[in-house]
Amino acid sequence: MKRILIIEDDPYIAELQRDYFMLHDYTVELCHDGLEGLARARSAEHDLIILDLQLPGVDGFEICRQIRKQLDVPLLIVSAKNEEIDKIRGFGLGADDFVTKPFSPNELVARAKAHLSRYERFTGGKSQEPDTIEIRELSIHKLSRRVFVNAREVAVTAKEFEVLVFLAAHPNRVFNKEELFDKIWGFESSGEIATVTVHISRIREKIEADPSNPQFIETVWGAGYRFTV
């Protein structure tokens, strides 16, 4: 049974989320304080984390930052903060999705299921494809979810890894932002397309010798992005 950690200071919203996930046979743990939630995320094993941004103790952005330093699980932000800059910041810190309050509990459960399914496809199961993608000085290990540049490991978030693997597995093909968003996030939501640009930028910072002149992930102006081999 999948375990979900919900970090939400509003008891009504937290219990609503819990009840809907329990109806779908998930085990749910609630935390109403940012410090407590961060401690629980670090000390116990969860399959997915749902995080509010405005929390007592420590805010959700900082929790997201700290979680991504040591955990590789789907992380969904659910917040009343709905400015584009908040979404971009959340995605930049490693969130996998951003749901704005008020929200549909059924949609939240559906999004969580989709992220869990995508995560499992990238981490488990047998495949006839080779485990390692090696292109020049870049080495991507799919099963262990590790990335190396010149034999030095670089840390990437779950979604950064998925974007990188998808592009590297389809070399020399151009994908626009909408296509990448649909392939990796899987939701029709034009307001969150900007996360693709954020993730591409962060990947470049980690794998490119000169991010301003990328040799792996190129921008094809007016068309999208292409992984060049």
TrEMBL record:
Q: Which InterPro entries match?
A: CheY-like_superfamily (IPR011006), OmpR/PhoB-type_DNA-bd (IPR001867), Sig_transdc_resp-reg_C-effctor (IPR016032), Sig_transdc_resp-reg_receiver (IPR001789), WalR-like (IPR039420), WH-like_DNA-bd_sf (IPR036388)
What lineage is on file? Bacteria, Bacillati, Bacillota, Bacilli, Bacillales
Residues covered by the Response regulatory domain: 3-116
Any one Gene Ontology cellular component term annotated for this protein = protein-DNA complex
What PANTHER family has UniProt attached to this entry? REGULATOR OF RPOS, STAGE 0 SPORULATION PROTEIN A HOMOLOG
Q: Which residues bind DNA?
A: 130-229
Q: Which organism is it from?
A: Paenibacillus lutrae
Q: What is this protein called?
A: Response regulator
Source superkingdom: Bacteria
Q: What is its main location?
A: cytoplasm
